[in-house]
Structures are given as structure tokens and as C-alpha cells.
């Protein structure tokens, strides 16, 4: 009984001898690349009700505050749909993710190096936290849009559950 439990644990930890790995199993390794990433690489905090999705007048995202210049990372893999400047959003990046949802990162400190069409992996640097556009303090304004996406027929949904799941992970 005890032996069986130990064997199960060894399998879960991936300690099976590699000599017995099938080609399919070998193709899955390495698995170090993250499938998701919290978008702010540093200390951050959420604001009051007005900074939440639906707060204030037509707030379509959630604001996450952090020190100016804190690195921003792609929350999920995808392809850059747009990376430009807008009077309200400031420097922003829109990434279409594999799930069909679009992720929008706004108020970047300086223009992102990413361009429309670029592929990004989860965790890739997309810029840094700033206050460009209509922002009163350095923060990430983060939006999530259902397929087919950002101003393309999708609709914005509350990104907070996603953000909290990423933080937990
Ligand atoms: Zn905002």
C-alpha cells in the first residue's frame, strides 16, 4: 500500500526514467514556458470602486496601480492586434489571445516595442507601467474583450477574476 502511494507521487513529480519516455512525451518537454502570467512584474494594488470595471462612467477595464516603470508582461500568449497611442488610453497594446479574447494594456510609460502582427508568449515584456493618456497616476488599465475582440464585435467583460486567478498562480 505504502509502495503504491510512493510510485504515484513519483509519477506526478515526473521522476519516471527518461529512457522509457515515448517520443510524444519527449515532445512535451520542456514545460518551463508559462501559459499565463500576472501582467505587472512587481508590487501592485487595486484602487477603489471607480477604478473597477463599470466604475465611474463607462470604465471598461480594471486599473492596477504600480510604480512608474514597472515591467508589464503579457498575461497570455497571442498576437498583437494593435499598438498605438490614443488620447485617453495613452500608449496601449492589444493582444488577441488563443482563447479568442483580447487583452488591452493601456497608459504605458513609453510606446511598446511590439507592433501589430507580433507573436508574444505569456510573460513576454510588452512595456512598462506609466501614466500616458488620460491617467492621473501610474497604473495599468487592463481590459478583456470577448471574441471577436476589441472594437471588432466583442464586448468588454470584467477582467478582475482573470487578474486574481493569475495572481494566485
Ligand atoms: Zn482605467
Brief account:
The chain is an alpha+beta fold. Helices cover 15% and strands 28% of the residues. It contains three helices and ten strands, in the order H-H-E-E-E-E-E-E-E-E-E-E-H.
Number of helices: 3
* DSSP, total strands: 10
Task: Please give the largest β-sheet.
Answer: 8 strands, antiparallel
CATH topology: Glucose Permease (Domain IIA)
Distance between the termini: 33 Å
Shape, principal axes of CA atoms = globular
Point out poorly predicted stretches.
1-26
Question: What's the CATH architecture name?
Answer: Distorted Sandwich
Give the mean pLDDT. Answer: 85
Rg, Cα atoms, Å: 19 Å
Structural class: alpha+beta
SSE run? HHEEEEEEEEEEH
Provide the CATH superfamily: Glucose Permease (Domain IIA)
Which percent band covers the strand fraction? 25-35%
Number of domains: 1
The first-level CATH class name: Mainly Beta
Bound compounds, each kind once, are: zinc ion
Measured as a percent range, the helix fraction is 10-25%
Amino acid at each position: 500500500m505504502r509502495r503504491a502511494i510512493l510510485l504515484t507521487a513519483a509519477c506526478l513529480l515526473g521522476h519516471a526514467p527518461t529512457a522509457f519516455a515515448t517520443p510524444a512525451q519527449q515532445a512535451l518537454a520542456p514545460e518551463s514556458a508559462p501559459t499565463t502570467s500576472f501582467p505587472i512584474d512587481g508590487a501592485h494594488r487595486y484602487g477603489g470602486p471607480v477604478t473597477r470595471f463599470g466604475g465611474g462612467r463607462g470604465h471598461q477595464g480594471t486599473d492596477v496601480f504600480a510604480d512608474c516603470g514597472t515591467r508589464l508582461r503579457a498575461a497570455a500568449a497571442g498576437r498583437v492586434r494593435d499598438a498605438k497611442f490614443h488620447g485617453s488610453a495613452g500608449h496601449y497594446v492589444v493582444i488577441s489571445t488563443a482563447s479568442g479574447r483580447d487583452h488591452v494594456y493601456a497608459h504605458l510609460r513609453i510606446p511598446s516595442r511590439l507592433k501589430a502582427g507580433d507573436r508574444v508568449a505569456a510573460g513576454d515584456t510588452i512595456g512598462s507601467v506609466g501614466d500616458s493618456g488620460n491617467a492621473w497616476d501610474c497604473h495599468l488599465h487592463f481590459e478583456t474583450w470577448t471574441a471577436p475582440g476589441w472594437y471588432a464585435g466583442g464586448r468588454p467583460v470584467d477582467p478582475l477574476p482573470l487578474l486574481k486567478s493569475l495572481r494566485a498562480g
